[in-house]
Amino acid sequence: MNGFIVGMYLPGDSFVHQLDPRAKLGFAFIFMFMVFFADRLLACAIFLAFVLVAIHIAKVPYRLFFTALKPIIFIILLSSLLHLWMTKGGEMILAFPGITIYEEGIRQAGIISIRLLLLVAIASLLTFTTSPVDLTDGMESLLSPLRKIGVPAHELALMMSIALRFIPTLWEETEKIRKAQMARGIDFEEGHILKRLKKHLPILIPLFISAFRRAEDLALAMEARCYRGSEGRTKWRQLHYTRRDLWLLLILILLGMVLLIFRH
Amino acid sequence: MEPIIQFEHVWFRYQVDEPDPPWVLKDIRLNIDPGEYVSIVGNNGSGKSTLARLANGLLLPTKGRVMISGMETSSEQDIWQIRRTVGMVFQNPENQIVATSVEDDIAFGLENIGVPPLQMEEKIKNAVKAVGLEGFEHHEPHTLSGGQKQRLAIAGVIVLEPDVIIFDESTSMLDPVGRKTILEIMQSLNRRGKTIIHITHSAEEAFMADRMIVMHQGECKLDEATGRLYQEAMRLKEWELDVPLEIELWDRLRQKGWPLPDKIINKEELVSEIWRLLSRT
Amino acid sequence: MEIVVKDLSVVYMPDTPYEKQALSHIDLRIESGCFAAIAGATGSGKSTLIQCMAGLIRPASGQVQVGDKIFHAGSKSGAALRKHVGIVFQYPEHQLFEETIAKDIAFGLKNRGITEPKLDREVHRMMDLVGLPGELSDRSPFHLSGGQMRRVAIAGILALKPDVLIMDEPTAGLDRQGKQELFRLLKDLHEKQGLTVILVTHDMNDVAKYADQVFVLSGGKLALSGTPAEVFEQYQIWQELSLELPQVSQLVAKINEQLDVPLPYSIFTLEELEQSLAKRFVQREAPT
User: Fold this and answer.
1) Cα-flanking dihedrals φ and ψ of residue A167, to 5°?
2) Where do the ABC transporter domain residues begin and end (chain C) (predicted)?
3) Domains parsed from chain C with CATH numbers
4) Does a structural domain hold residue A5?
């Protein structure tokens, strides 16, 4: 599973690991929301500092965050370049024929990259420190008040759990099919990008067929184990808030104050 | 004693668009008593897996009826009680596991039937022990071997305390080591009073049961205690099935004129007969 | 075509906490035109070994030589090997994807740049070879039985005219009839087409019946090699490796528990056991 890091959980017993998953999920959600209001470089820097400290406390190696960032580095670069070119205001810093770069442009580029970075970092920190079981339990519990207005909280959580359960299986299967098709003479490294995409059809079609077959088997097995939706169902794992979780509330208030103080 | 599973003139075919789909099962009459260890053998397409699915209401008969402990599988109000009575372990170990950790997967069935959370701990622990997965409670399923995954699937079924457990070709995708452990678990469950139904196409595995049912083209061709089946075993070839090696040897030696008895009841007896003949002076 | 493996090692995910030595210092030679079997428990490295031979996994050190093509850590790709070695993975029917059987068999040929009308001719020849009726060619492969789907997948590999055919657990999930048919096909390919066949399996009964050469892996190392007779004779080592001997050998062991003069452990087919017992029986009668 080379380089497969999305949704990965790193078992541990740090302060962050021991937080209640609902508290973490709620925190991450509000934090992401707040990131969009952090429109001052200083506020962004404070947020970033907070995340770096949190990573340190969680004892997650920093290099794993770089691996998690890899897939979106292109997006970060592109959006900061766009801001660099398009934003006007403040002093003129550089002037080339065709483009001029203003002070405000640099600021905006900085803000947008830090924002994206924060989003990825907080989401990865959540999955690195929360087991898939806790994650789905937390989600189900947070969503359950919405059941009254018709949100299928249990079904959503179960879907997520099954998805997390089968990611490694399907990943392995992809590798196997890829090799089998290579043995039939496909060279995945050759050709331009469109041609290469088309070459992946012989992988994708068998993968889909297999995923459907698995889904059918799984549905049958679940039915045989008396599954009939959320009705009359109990939960084995009971979540409990502790005093630790109050810290997250405090941090949220502090970060909110930062936003207010450095308001535009 | 009332049979725990009764098939009364059961006919089955799949509902498809074709005008006259073929019968998958034809007039099956079958009684299985509590505590029996039964194997059902047949080739692919013989209808043996369909038979299994009819036994816990995953499929319903087209004609006739299936009774589980006196409850009819077509009854909507009894179906959940029927599924709790008859548990089922499937072929592919990978596709039966729902949760992202071993103990949570075992808990899945308990949650479904609404067991109070505080009572689950004990039951999960016992199920883990029964299949020998101690120490793996927190493991993620994809880190387990095929045999271990299948043991997890069994734990997920026995935690619901069913009276009957059907193994639907549950050994066919495993390596010899995995297969052996699953067969041992079957035997130990049977010793503890569970009714075991093992569906397989391996004659060798089928002969481990006390009673063997041969399915061929949707019909029940043979239903006999395995001990009594030894002298008829060469007939298994009629239905394209394997014959256990010791029976093949017994048959060949008899054809060569060895004075072997007409009946043998197991491998041990054959071995001691051979020994008796070779060392007689 | 001859395969020579020299000092082959493979490491998975090097320099990570998950690093695993899959193969260490394997040396072996599979003779041209031979029917070889590779056996070993799950995780013994047999699947890695055959993928190296097929040019799909790069050696960390050492080399694989197929005919005059060499594949080692520094090779650009394994493509040169792939031209000579066909590999059929476990449950090969799971890799089918085209809408008709003919198109699926033709897939590999098309990748090699072969065009109509030769393509069509080859596809039908392959269908005939693996025993699929020609009128099925325009049907969807997904409506076939499991055994037939497997034949389609095998035909797709055979169409590439490999000199060496590797089969990973080819009979998994098949019933007795399907199994017998598949081995008949394998035997035909080996004897009539002269293919070098490498069979990977857990089932020692099949090894006993079909193989000329056996290689047993354990923990990424070559534990035993030789003819079936030589290999199955090493009765104790098999128990240490927790591998199953052929059923006949197991029966011999059981009979020997009671005999003063044991039967030889080199017996591993029913015919040999029968003959050996008959001989004993006659010897016993002669003096009296």
Assistant:
1) -55, -50
2) 5-244
3) 3-245 (3.40.50.300), 246-287 (no CATH)
4) no
Q: Is residue A4 part of a domain?
A: no
Strands (E), chain A: 92-95, 100-102
Residue B37: in which H helix or E strand, if any? Answer: strand B37-41
Do B207 and B254 lie in a common domain? no
Across the beta sheet with B5-12, what order do the strands follow? B25-32, B5-12, B63-68, B71-72
Chain A residues lying within 8 Å of B141, measured CB to CB: 165
Give ipTM to 2 decimals. Answer: 0.90
Task: Spell out which residues of chain B touch residue C242, defining contact as CB-CB under 8 Å.
Answer: 177
- Measured CA distances, A30 to A23, A146, A199, A223, C156 (Å): 11, 18, 42, 37, 54
- If one counts the domains in chain A, the total is 1
- Residue A14 included in any domain: no
User: Is the pLDDT score of C287 beyond 70?
Assistant: no
Q: Is the pLDDT of residue C220 over 80?
A: yes
CA-CA-CA-CA dihedral for B200, B206, B209, B212, to nearest 10:
90
**pLDDT tens-digit profile of B192-221?**
999 999 999 888 899 999 999 999 999 999
- What is the percentage of chain C residues whose pLDDT exceeds 70? 97
Residue ranges making up the domain that contains B43: 5-243
At A3 the pLDDT is 43
CB contact under 8 A, C255 and B248: no
Asked if A228 and B104 come within 8 Å (Cβ–Cβ), the reply is no
- pLDDT value of residue C262: 81
Tally of structural domains, chain B: 2
Q: Are residues B154 and B262 in the same domain?
A: no
CATH number at residue B236: 3.40.50.300
Q: Is the pLDDT of residue B151 over 90?
A: yes
Say whether both B85 and B205 belong to one domain.
yes
If asked whether residues B111 and B14 sit together in one domain, one would say yes
Looking at the fold, whether B24 and B96 belong to one and the same domain comes out as yes
Residue A189 scores a pLDDT above 80: no
Q: Which amino acid is at B2?
A: E
Cross-strand pairs, A92: A102
- My answer on whether B178 and B64 are in the same domain is yes
pLDDT digits (tens, 9 = 90+) for B116-129: 999 999 999 999 99
Angle between helices A153-183 and A132-143 (to 10 degrees): 140
- Chain C residues with CB under 8 Å of a chain A CB are 13, 18, 51, 54, 56, 77, 79, 82, 86-87, 89, 92, 94-97, 107-108, 111-112, 142, 156-157, 160
